[in-house]
Specification:
about 450 residues, mainly beta, five-stranded antiparallel beta sheet, 2 helices, about 0% helix, disordered N terminus
């Protein structure tokens, strides 16, 4: 890990917007530590990914005008594209000195992590350059490594991710209050790297006050005996969804195949690392029982990520969607989970397992293999789920909502999703269409709207 000299990418920039008022009025006061965060949290340790901020008091429909709301600064020299959501932590003493400030963390597809001062003064005149904090950006590529390109990963067939694949999924931050009252903590993120002909996925844990390592070197993410996959794991897989830090203290890292790969498709995987001991081998669950791991069922997320919630029995579960692939959860001992809303056990149970009542649509077979219009490429799980807080609807409780690749929205009871109800006797009417939609949805929710 080291300092990377910035290479300008035309059109790649960071924008910070502010509301024009007295400076103390619009100072950032809310941490955004995960993708599509719930503010405030729905329950202790839960992650519903509503994306709502119910504590927002300044920005209203009435005061968002061209005269009061606008761009404060920009930074036009990021060294790669940004796919992950920027995150914000307030009251950070950068380097352990000075006054606390809001810090904006931005990860790029060139394997770099930037930190910007996110506490601007009132806007005046033309926007200037955003302030890059000292010692950043840092490169999370080791000596001799580069961020793989589309030509390297997945055989050059990339459709939605190009030209490079460095840091793709949204990182996650675990904050803590330091002795002096300022905010400290750890930012977790996953990189993909290429060295010669070898590919690597690595987990990093960095101090949010300096972006230095937090006592452990980067960790190579490698499937173990409980997670079969093909021999070219890091060349054929990407870490696309947002990372999940659950209330159980585990860090969940989902992966899918690289978009554009040809059949046979590598399997979807999810790893669970104990944040109290990152060097301990992780738990791992495959979406395929095939010993070579070529049954599909990738965990894509569409820019969102897995969710974490406590059901009425007081048990915690992780929820995510899978893309097209083989399915046999309805058979004794079956573990193929293509096109499924997966309800998975928490890692604090000692193992990861898929609940028998995880929901799979009756037309799964047609979605994965027989659709004449899209060659079976109509994933149920192209997007990520979002949980609607209980009490928002007097008729339906425990609602999960997610979108499929056709642009359809699905609503399920996440406490008991419903399992698999059986194959449709004939291909559904949607198979007769002449055009193919490719929606990848991450749903947002705002209470009372």
């Amino acid at each position: 890990m080291g300092r990377r000299s910035a290479t300008t990418f035309s059109g790649l920039l960071l924008l910070i917007f502010v509301l024009g008022a007295a400076p103390q009025q619009f100072a950032q006061t809310t941490n955004v530590t995960t993708g599509h965060q719930d503010i405030p949290a729905i329950c202790t340790g839960c992650v519903y990914r509503t994306g709502q901020n119910l504590q927002e008091s300044m920005v209203t429909r009435g005061n968002i005008t061209t005269g009061t709301f606008g761009q404060f600064c920009n930074y036009t020299s990021l060294d790669g594209q940004v796919y992950g959501q920027p995150l914000v932590v307030t009251n950070v003493k950068w380097g352990g000195v000075g006054q606390g400030r809001a810090v904006v963390y931005v990860a790029t597809m060139n394997g770099s992590l930037y930190a910007f001062d996110g506490t601007p003064s009132a806007p005046s005149g033309a926007p200037g350059a955003c302030t890059l904090l000292s010692g950043t950006p840092v490169s999370l590529l080791l000596s001799g490594e580069t961020a793989p390109t589309c030509d390297n990963v997945g055989g050059g067939g990339c459709k939605t991710i190009a030209p490079s694949v460095g840091i793709l999924g949204t990182p996650v931050i675990n904050t803590t209050t330091l002795v002096d009252g300022s905010t400290g903590g750890t930012i977790y993120l996953v990189t993909e790297a290429l060295s010669g002909s070898n590919y690597y996925h690595r987990l990093w844990a960095l101090d949010i006050t300096s972006l230095s390592l937090t006592g452990v070197t980067s960790i190579s993410i490698t499937p173990n005996g409980t997670c079969p996959t093909d021999m070219n794991f890091s060349q054929r897989h990407i870490q696309r969804p947002a990372l999940l830090l659950g209330g159980d203290g585990f860090l969940y890292i989902p992966l899918s195949m690289m978009d554009g790969l040809k059949n046979p498709y590598p399997n979807g995987l999810i790893f669970a690392y104990d944040t109290a001991s990152l060097s301990t081998p992780p738990l791992c669950l495959s979406m395929s029982e095939n010993s070579t791991g070529k049954d599909g069922g990738g965990i894509w997320g569409g820019g969102g990520g897995p969710v974490y919630a406590q059901d009425p029995s007081s048990s915690y579960h992780i929820f995510f969607n899978t893309g097209n692939g083989f399915f046999n959860l309805n058979t004794t001992g079956g573990t193929d989970a293509g096109d499924t809303f997966v309800k998975m056990s928490s890692a604090n149970t000692g193992a990861l397992s898929i609940a028998a009542n995880s929901y799979t649509p009756g037309d799964q077979y047609y979605r994965s293999s027989m659709d004449p219009g899209c060659s079976g490429d109509v994933d149920f799980g192209s997007g990520s789920p979002m949980l609607i807080p209980d009490g928002e609807n007097s008729t339906w409780q425990h609602l999960a909502v997610s979108g499929d690749k056709e642009g359809g929205l699905w609503f399920m009871d996440w406490t008991s999703p419903g399992g698999y109800t059986g194959m449709c006797p004939t291909a559904p009417a949607r198979s007769a269409r002449t055009t193919c939609r490719h929606s990848r949805l991450a749903v947002h929710f705002l209470a009372g709207r």
